[in-house]
Automatic annotation (TrEMBL):
A matching Pfam family: DUF6198
Protein name (Swiss-Prot/TrEMBL): Putative integral membrane protein
Keyword Nucleus assigned: no
Species the sequence originates in: Microcella alkaliphila
PANTHER family: INTEGRAL MEMBRANE PROTEIN, INTEGRAL MEMBRANE PROTEIN-RELATED
Transmembrane listed as a keyword: yes
Keywords attached to this entry: Membrane, Transmembrane, Transmembrane helix
Length: 232
């Protein structure tokens, strides 16, 4: 009787301060996490490889390039007739500068084992950050929204859109000089289950009413950033 009653009792609304704090802390930690993974220099997620490749080609900091790519992805929402949430916009604005600030204070270690420690620490932090910002309920990251938007608009499976886009950006970034390695494989294998754990524990009930019209990702296997990476 007790379990049935608990299951049918509506969750209490979350105070806006809690929701906003979770969003902003999550976005800042996401940028720190990407910076740590870059400093590990053992491989990156597809979108960060893409941003790093363009950063090295064009000669601007990777954080600024991440912002520019995020804006470009967000513009692709227009033909998909999707509306970004405030979390989507802040995702584009906040994560990139935090990546550059992190890279100013975290150097790449010389020892391989130390680089892996830095990378895996960043990966764990990325999973936590994704659970925080995505669970706040202010809209998905631009890359997740692109994929779910394509699904809603054309009926393409989310996994097929995700795979096609990420293989393309990974290959492009690698050809431009982005770092692809065992860390890229580790990211692909681990990030889905890790985000599944953090999102289940950090998702807040009753997202703001104004966000109900925004596209919501049903697949948290990629943060994006960028994240994934590089801003999800």
């Amino acid at each position: 009787m007790t379990s049935t009653t608990a299951a049918t009792t509506p969750a209490r609304p979350v105070h806006p301060v809690r929701r906003w704090s979770q969003l902003l802390v999550g976005l800042v930690l996401y940028g720190v996490a990407i910076g740590l993974m870059i400093s590990g220099n053992v491989g990156l997620d597809p979108w960060t490889v893409f941003a790093q490749g363009w950063s090295r080609t064009v000669g601007i900091p990777i954080g600024i390039m991440t912002v520019l790519i995020g804006i470009g992805v967000l513009l692709l929402w227009i033909p998909l007739k999707q509306r970004p949430g405030i979390g989507t916009v802040l995702n584009v604005i906040v994560i990139g500068p935090v990546i550059d600030l992190t890279l100013l204070v975290v150097d790449t270690p010389d020892a391989l084992i130390a680089r892996w420690v830095v990378f895996l620490g960043g990966l764990a932090l990325l999973a936590l950050a994704t659970g925080l910002y995505f669970g706040a309920g202010f809209g998905p990251g631009p890359r997740d929204g692109l994929m779910t938007g394509a699904h809603a608009r054309f009926g393409w499976p989310v996994w097929a859109v995700r795979t096609g886009v990420e293989v393309t950006v990974l290959a492009t970034g690698w050809m431009l000089g982005g770092t692809v390695g065992l860390g890229t494989v580790a990211f692909a294998l681990l990030i889905g289950p890790m985000v599944g754990v953090t999102l289940a524990r950090l998702r807040l009930p009753e997202a703001p009413r104004r966000q109900r019209g925004s596209v919501r990702s049903t697949d948290a296997s990629h943060p994006v950033p960028g994240g994934t990476g590089g801003g999800a």
